[in-house]
Amino acid sequence: MPHGTDARTPAGPPDPYPAFMTAPLPPFPMHVSVQEARTLLAALLPDRRTETLPLAQAAGRTLAGDLRALVSHPSATESALDGIAAREADTLGAAPHTPVRLHVTGESRAGVPFTGMVGAGECVRIYTGAPLPPGADAICPVEQLLDDGPDGVLLRRPASPGDVRHEGGDFRTGEVVMTAGLPLTAPRLALAAALGHPQVPVLAPLRVALLSTGDEVVPPGQPLTAGQVYDSNSVGLRAMLIEAGCEVIPLGHAPDSPEALQAAIDRAGGADVLLTSGGVSMGRYDFMRDLLIEQGRVSFWKVRMRPGGPAILGGWNGLPVFGLPGNPVSSLVVFHVIVRPALTGQPPQTLRLRAATPFRALPDKTAFWRASIQDGRVSDYGQQGSGILRSLSEAGALVIVPEGQPVAAGDDVDVILL
């Protein structure tokens, strides 16, 4: 019997731990910062294609070029309210007990302006958005007027130049009003229409292939056996990708097998990036990690953050691959703070709020603790485990606690809304 062999222990399969687990650190960055992870992922993404869409189809897209005003707005000096247009000098001294009488010579309404001149002691009835007649320089609101015969009106206060909207006060013809990179929200689309544009250049959506992994993962609706869980990651990640304006290429699920994973990855043709969940940590069966390190290309492995530290970025035959952790909270938090900003070019929106409770710091990681907001103050949600998916639904916010910088009750903190 060879030396060191225990006759009671039958020969088993080879140890699935890859060689790098016991070798010196590999030649790629380990434990990068959150910002470094965003930057490295963004650098691997292809240049964005552009397309032109009608305004009605551009909601949620990103503007791909500057927009200049094709017209001025307002296109003419106009009234901001209903009332009369007059010369301010003729109305000075008007008060409830000493009203000033003016002679009404006509009216101006939107689309049908008054064509004459307002002379001394005269006025024109005017309506919101109507052009200010020549000679007039002020407006008195209808609430301060009393009729005085068929062609007269009494002013109970002076007319005000402040109720006049001047031509081009919003924007002028030729002015760059919207710049490339803006997300096209409803107000911005309305502004694009006001500028005179029936269509806009936008970034084409990134095509993201999505793959969930793990022997324990089962589609919702099927019966579970011991140790199995429903596949919440693919559902949550798909929704977040759609919210980020991406086109999702669903690859389904792959079990913990190098062959199955490789076959699934090879189905991602046409994608701009592959997003996976699971198989990237320190376990014996984290084969997604093994494939990238041993046969692909790795840009980094592990991020200095919690939850979500064991994320990996690499490439497979020219396709960028970002491997998210399998724990559902870790997966969704990493997407929110790293992947989505890289895909959209927009950092997470943060608020500065007062902490109602303390938040602990980690010595070597940025913490993103789940928190609740009430009355403008933020409180520790309590349950911070990576498997407590319910917490992301109920907490509604992540408090950012930098490495080694604990937050005391009463401190101001940066908060990401979920």
Automatic annotation (TrEMBL):
Protein function: Catalyzes the insertion of molybdate into adenylated molybdopterin with the concomitant release of AMP.
Entry keyword annotation includes Metal-binding: yes
Enzyme class, UniProt record, top EC level: transferase
Lineage top rank: taxon: Bacteria
The protein's name: Molybdopterin molybdenumtransferase
Database matches in SUPFAM superfamilies: MoeA C-terminal domain-like, MoeA N-terminal region -like, Molybdenum cofactor biosynthesis proteins
Domain annotation MoaB/Mog: ranges: 209-345
Species name: Deinococcus depolymerans
The family this protein is said to belong to: Belongs to the MoeA family.
Reported cofactor(s): Mg(2+)
Pathway(s) this gene product operates in, as recorded in its UniProt entry: Cofactor biosynthesis; molybdopterin biosynthesis
Pfam name, any one: MoCF_biosynth
Catalytic function, reaction form: adenylyl-molybdopterin + molybdate = Mo-molybdopterin + AMP + H(+)
Keyword terms, alphabetized: Magnesium, Metal-binding, Molybdenum, Molybdenum cofactor biosynthesis, Transferase
NCBIfam families (alphabetical): Glp_gephyrin (NF045515), molyb_syn (TIGR00177)
UniProt-listed Enzyme Commission number(s): 2.10.1.1
PANTHER family assigned: GEPHYRIN (PTHR10192:SF5), MOLYBDOPTERIN BIOSYNTHESIS PROTEIN (PTHR10192)
Signal as UniProt keyword: no
